[in-house]
Each structure stands twice: as C-alpha cells, then as structure tokens.
Write a structure and sequence with these properties.
mainly beta; Jelly Rolls; eight-stranded antiparallel β-sheet
C-alpha cells in the first residue's frame, strides 16, 4: 500500500491537560510513538477503507483529513501522560506505516466499552467489556485480543483464553505482526499465535503489505499509554516465520554441499550456506526423496531480473511447468523486463494456471521467506507472511496459451528448483510431511 501525504491541522486547543509520560523507558529496540504530551505522530480517521482514501484526489483527501481531525479534537485529550478518548469521534492513526513490527501498549477502559486496535489500517485486535452479557453472543465473554474481523472459525478469531484484567485496571498488549501473521499477548498470556489477519476491506486479497496503527474508539472511555513500536528487519522477520513450529520441519539442505539432491547438480553450487544456480546454467535440482503432501519452508534471494522456480511433485524429468504438478514461479516480478507477462507468470503463481497476488516481494538482493503447502490438489503460497496464492488445481479450466498441464494431477513426486540461467539463491530449506489425503475422483 503506497503511503499518502498526510495533511495535518495544528492541534492547539486539543489538549486539555498534559504532563510527562509515566516514568518508564520502552523495552530495548522499541520507540515511543506517543510522547505523553502531543499528537505529533498522529492524525485522525474513522472506520474508512485506506484504499478508498488513497484513491481520492489530493484536495479531497486533505479536506477529509481536516474534517476528521476537527472531529477528533472534540473527543480526545491528554491527561497525566495518558491518551484519553470519551468513546466517540474519529480514531487516531499513526502518520507512519509499518510492515513487520512489534507493538506494545497499555489500555484501561470502562463497563460496556467496545474498542480495538487496527493493524495496517485494518480491523482489528478486539478490546471490550468481557462482563457485558449483551455481547456474549458475539464473543465478549471470551475476552479481548482476538482478531475479531477474521472469518468465523478462522485461526485468531477468538483468543485462546480470557486474559483481561478487571475493568478499571491497566491491561498490556504485546502484538507482533510479520506480513499478515499476527501474534498477540495480553497481560503476558499468549492468546493469538501466528494467525493470518484477514483483509476486512477485500476478503479476496491479502492484508496490506504495510499500513498504519489505529486506536479505535466507541462505546465508552478508553485510556492508552506507553505506546511503542519496534520495527523488524527482513532478517528478524524471516527468523520469526522460520522459527514458528520449526521443530516440526526436517532440513533438506545441510548448508555445506548438495548431499541429498539429484538432477542437474553440476549447474548448482553452494555459496555462503546457500544453494545458488550458476549464472548461465539451469535445469532442475531435485530432492532424492519423493513427497505427496507437505509443507516446505525456504528463503530465497533474487538478483535483479532473476528467474527460477519451485518444482512441485516433479517426475524427475521434463519441463516442470507442465510435467510436474506445477512450477511455482520465483521471479523478480517488478523488474521492467517482466512488465507485460501473463498474470499467471509472476512470482508465486502456479505457472500458466493460477495467478498469485503481487506486491509482497522484497527488493532484489534481499532475502525473502516463503512457505508452500501442498495438500491433495490444493496449493498455498505464503510470501514473507502474506498468503499470495490459495488455489485448487482441480478447478483450473483455463490455461495460458491454451496449453494443458499433463502433470497437474500428479499425487506425488520430487521437490526442487527449476533454474533459468540466473544466480538465484536458496537457503534454510526444510520440509514437513503431511498425512495423505484421498484424491477426489473426477
């Protein structure tokens, strides 16, 4: 999501009373984004689709921001280093967008209150009165902290346990978001674990790559303090994704040589703990074992314009895009030379069959994390914590250039890489075998 220019009015007159932030330093690596005495890093917005705001003409956007800030002045104040809202008015929104980060804050609210925290401009980590029986039918009795706008039954929709403190006491949130993968601790209790936060604004698309943090307000007074953020580097973000349930995965690559691999071994090399396709070379580098249903994790790094692929259930020969179940593209999609490709040729796509969502690759030269789940005829591709492909190849009826994929219905095969002359690198490659699934009869 492209950041838009924020036009802010002076907030003089907004503050009813100010005092220094409570005598507390942020945790190591964190930075306060509310200083306890001003709103220098914030602007105002109600529940409003960020893409719709971004699409507005500049003058219309400025007018809306001015209107919302004027409304915020009526309902927000600062008292004793605490950010206070009376339960009404526009929300407060960070001027900065965040991609991979950790958020810590404290809040205190009142009976019958209903609030939340928008992440990347999207609702929301829920906050409410867990004792209010009028909302038990929508989950209030389960407690705060769930990703309330996720689909019913989806991971993260409800917190694991009720961790709220009694009303009138301060609660502490520690939220980590890498891509759409969201983890929430409430009062030091894990209540949401690595769940994908859904895009409320467009259920068919991944969560925005980046976006602001918003403090939602409605239903009763709420106070906020000690709001701080730690941004995660790509290396830190990859480690978070790689480590989650990492004990369930078996390494496929020892980081030293190509033991355990077969195929065009002479066209690949091991450099600094990574498998690299030799420049000007290609062909498939495949595992020695076959797999049916599995989850594979890896990191990859693309040179500018780089092109490679992941062979899924390969028979060991032939063009992996057609002879294997599929080839998942590994491609520097935003390079100018690829501007006019078919949508089914960009990174993460099942080549020629199913298009992945774009916009989630890191810049060429940076390491990306990818997880691929293959289960019966379905394939899911997560890139840097964002679900960019979720498809059932049994439902594909239209093919690029009308060329059928004879291997599409394969139920097992080798996993590996499909080089295309570019020095694309792979490392930290591991696999988790899944139970066999009966393949539906046609």
């Amino acid at each position: 999501m492209i950041s838009f220019r924020i036009h802010l009015l002076s907030i003089a007159g907004l503050l009813l009373a100010t005092s220094p932030l409570a005598a507390q330093q942020p945790p190591a690596g964190f930075e306060f984004i509310f200083d306890g005495k001003s709103l220098d890093r914030w602007h105002a917005r109600p529940h409003f689709d960020p893409a719709r705001l971004e699409a507005m003409p500049d003058d219309q956007r400025r007018e809306k921001l001015d209107e919302w800030m004027a409304d915020a002045k009526k309902h927000w104040s600062i008292e004793k280093g605490e950010l206070v809202n009376d339960g009404q008015g526009a929300y407060l929104v960070t001027n900065r967008d965040y991609t991979d980060y950790e958020l810590r804050l404290e809040y205190k609210t009142v009976p019958r209150a209903d609030s939340g925290i928008y992440l990347k401009g999207t609702p929301q980590v829920q906050i409410w009165d867990y004792t209010d029986p009028s909302k038990f039918n929508i989950g209030a009795d389960l407690g705060s902290g769930g990703l309330w706008n996720n689909s019913p039954g989806a991971p993260g929709k409800d917190p694991f346990v009720l961790a709220d403190k009694p009303l009138g006491q301060w609660n502490q949130f520690h939220i980590r978001q890498v891509g759409a993968r969201t983890t929430v601790f409430l009062n030091d209790i894990l209540i949401v674990d690595n769940a994908i936060m859904e895009n409320f604004w467009d259920r068919g698309a991944p969560l925005f790559r980046s976006g602001p943090i918003e403090l939602q307000t409605h239903g009763g007074e709420i106070r906020w303090r000690n709001i701080c953020v730690k941004e995660l580097s790509p290396k830190e973000a990859n480690a978070v994704l790689q480590d989650h349930q990492g004990q369930a995965f078996t390494p496929l690559f020892n980081g030293e040589n190509l033991s355990g691999w077969q195929g065009s071994v002479e066209n690949y090399e091991v450099v600094d703990g990574a498998i690299r396709c030799k420049e000007g070379k290609g062909g498939m580098l495949l595992t020695k074992d076959e797999y049916a249903n599995f989850i594979v994790r890896l990191e990859f790094r693309l040179p500018p314009g780089g092109n490679n692929g992941l062979a899924i259930r390969s028979p060991g020969d032939g063009d992996p895009a057609y002879a294997a179940m599929c080839e998942l593209q590994v491609l520097d999609s935003e390079h100018p030379k690829y501007a006019k490709l078919d949508a089914r040729q960009y990174h993460g796509s099942a080549y020629g069959m199913a298009a992945a969502h774009r916009g989630f690759l890191r810049d060429a030269g940076e390491w990306n994390f990818q997880q691929v789940t293959v289960d019966s005829s379905t394939i899911k591709v997560e890139l840097n914590g964002n679900l960019i492909l979720d498809t059932d190849l049994n439902e594909v009826t239209q093919y690029m250039a009308d060329r059928p994929h004879e291997g599409k219905d394969r139920t097992s095969g080798f996993f590996g890489f499909a080089g295309h002359n570019d020095p694309v690198e792979f490392r930290n490659i591991s696999i988790r075998v899944l139970p066999d699934t009966e393949v539906p009869k046609k």
